[in-house]
Amino acid sequence: MAAAGRWRAGLALLVVALGLGGPRAEQTEEHLKREHSLSKPYQGVGSASSGLWDLLGNAMVMTQYIRLTPDVQSKQGAVWNRVPCYLRDWEMQVHFKIHGQGKKNLNGDGFAIWYTKDRMQPGPVFGSKDNFLGLGVFVDTYPNEEKQQERVFPYISAMVNNGSLTYDHDRDGRPTELGGCTAMVRNLNHDTFLVIRYVKRRLTVSAACRGRAGSGATAWLRELLLSQVLIDIDGKHEWRDCIDVPGVRLPRGYYFGTSSVTGDLSAIFVGDASGRVSALLPDNHDIISLKLYQLTVERTPEEEKRDREVYLPVVDNLKLPGMEAPLEPMSGLALFLIVFFSLVAIVFAIVIGVIVYNKWQEQSRKHFY
Ligand SMILES: *[C@@H]1O[C@H](CO)[C@@H](O)[C@H](O)[C@H]1NC(C)=O
Ligand SMILES: [Ca+2]
Fold it and tell me: Where does the L-type lectin-like domain lie (predicted)?
């Protein structure tokens, strides 16, 4: 419960910080959009005819939450909004719970929040289709890449795709991620939230955790977001603004959804330092609520022009880690060869020049005599 202790420390700090932090520069007004929100008692969820949300795979409606996947291997589940979203500026508040028997980093796989063109399509990216069009925000609880010294899991990341990019599961999506952060969101006795904001083409993702459970979470989250403080606990940013990317262009009319997968961990056993062998156990992935707020912001005429409608998702000036041209520093040999051949070329040019000049002089002399 060390993590929980740190979260509580964070809360104490937060109360202080709330008084100090100024409001965000943007003055916004927000309205809950019921047609894009999901909350208790989950009326009509998964029913064929009525209801705003569809269930997929192993997802189940319970009284207190929607279980995307139970803590059993090779399960996947999703819940998708039936109504396309035409809002320009919005905020999605995801109240979730990830819990299981597994020890730290021996669980999986995580879940995703989607804003995509296609819906209800199972696939390999946290239970949903690859080469998607739109936005995916991932809460990855299992490090697939072996060399993960500098990255601590669970890890939150975001990806925008125009359909051409493939999520690299073996590398935890690193080659295509827009940004990310570590967030200790497993097995907490507290309310855990992910807040995805999309305002004037700026995408921000924040992770938050509230010590006391109960009502009033929305007002509390609002205050937290307005405070714009980054809280540093034990030198590790465990409670924080996680992703902030400007110039993200997302088309309107896409669908919100969330999906999860538990992966196949059956064959893997790991012996710990004491020589004991422990099995890798997947997590329950529960969604308690999805709340979508319309944000009303004022735009200058320039901003109106800049924020024109797009038909394919795109991120301005994007430099993905996987797309960096491998510009290696020039080796000593290469440098030597370049200098050497340049000198040879210069000497050659001088010799040619002298010969031509002599020839020309000879010719001139012939003309005079
Ligand atoms: C889709 O995105 C990729 C990578 O960002 C880019 O290279 C490609 O040109 C884009 N395709 C279209 C049709 O915009
Ligand atoms: Ca992973």
Answer: 30-295
CA of 105 to the centre of ligand 2 (A): 10
Per-residue pLDDT of 45-80, as tens digits, reads 998 777 899 999 999 999 999 999 999 989 999 999
Contacts of 26 (CB under 8 A, 6+ apart): 199, 200, 297
pLDDT of residue 24: 46
Give distance in angstroms: CA of 85 to centre of ligand 1.
23
Matching CATH number, 7-315, of 1.20.140.10, 3.30.70.20, 3.30.1380.10, 2.60.120.200: 2.60.120.200
Ligand nearest the Cα of residue 313 is 1
Which pTM does this prediction carry? 0.77
Q: Is the dihedral of CA 120, 292, 313, 142 positive or negative?
A: negative
Provide the angle, in degrees to the nearest 10, between the axes of the packed helices 2-20 and 217-227.
70
- Spell out the domain ranges in the chain: 7-315, 332-369
- Flag whether pLDDT at 231 surpasses 80: no
Pocket, ligand 1, Cβ cutoff 6 A: 162, 164-165, 312, 318
